[in-house]
TrEMBL record:
Protein name: Guanosine nucleotide diphosphate dissociation inhibitor
Family according to the record: Belongs to the Rab GDI family.
PANTHER family, per the entry: RAB GDP DISSOCIATION INHIBITOR, RAB GDP-DISSOCIATION INHIBITOR
One Gene Ontology term, aspect cellular component: cytoplasm
Superkingdom per UniProt: Eukaryota
GO molecular function: Rab GDP-dissociation inhibitor activity
GO BP, one annotated term: vesicle-mediated transport
Pfam families: GDI (PF00996)
Length: 196
């Protein structure tokens, strides 16, 4: 039922999430985990993100012709309140046509002209064949999900290195199970099981 336009969370008479309906079918469950788009009225806008997706015919200049690059422009160096993120990958990763690179530049919106805010990151890319810019809201849950069994992730922030996404997943795990995930212990147990 993922990525279906008609998917809707089903709630019981107490307001607890008990399933997901789509195409006339309902999958019943003890709780529902999902992104903010599945939970209208249960999130708020925390910030806005401006993103540019750029098609290049060359690697990012000054990266030793790398097929991938990750650059973080610290806020103080570019006169902003938020960092800016640049990520690039190429045809070598099977994500672009032969001899093409895809670059992403993103940051938190701070002004009434979001696209202009991307200038420091775009300047690093050299010639841009094609550019697509979007501005989106970043939604966060209003509650932790313990009452209504609707465990909602945060929306995607401007980061490109997945640190905040991993933190969000670990937070959802804690909210659902009531336990703080101990990945070191779990990894040690897996290693022991594999040796047996």
């Amino acid at each position: 039922m993922l990525n279906k336009s008609d998917a809707q969370v089903v709630y019981d008479e107490s307001g607890a999430a008990v399933g997901v309906s789509s195409g006339g079918e309902t999958a019943r469950c003890k709780f529902v985990v999902g992104d903010p788009s599945y939970f209208p009225g249960k999130t708020r806008v925390a910030s806005r993100v401006v993103r540019a997706i750029c098609i290049l015919s060359h690697p990012v200049p000054n990266t030793n012709n790398a097929h991938s690059a990750q650059i973080i422009l610290p806020q103080k160096q570019i006169g902003r309140h938020s960092d800016m993120y640049v990520f690039c990958c190429s045809y070598a990763h099977n994500v672009a046509a032969n001899n093409k690179w895809i670059a992403f530049v993103s940051t938190t919106v701070e002004t009434s002209n979001p696209e202009a805010e991307l200038a420091p990151g775009l300047a690093l890319l050299g010639h841009i064949d094609e550019k697509f810019v979007s501005v989106s809201d970043v939604h966060v849950p209003l509650e932790d999900g313990s009452k209504d069994k609707a465990f909602i992730s945060s929306g995607y922030d401007p980061t490109t290195h997945f640190e905040t996404t991993v933190e969000d997943v670990l937070d959802i795990y804690r909210r659902v199970t009531g336990e703080v995930p101990d990945l070191d212990t779990k990894n040690a147990r897996l290693a022991e099981q594999q040796q047996e």
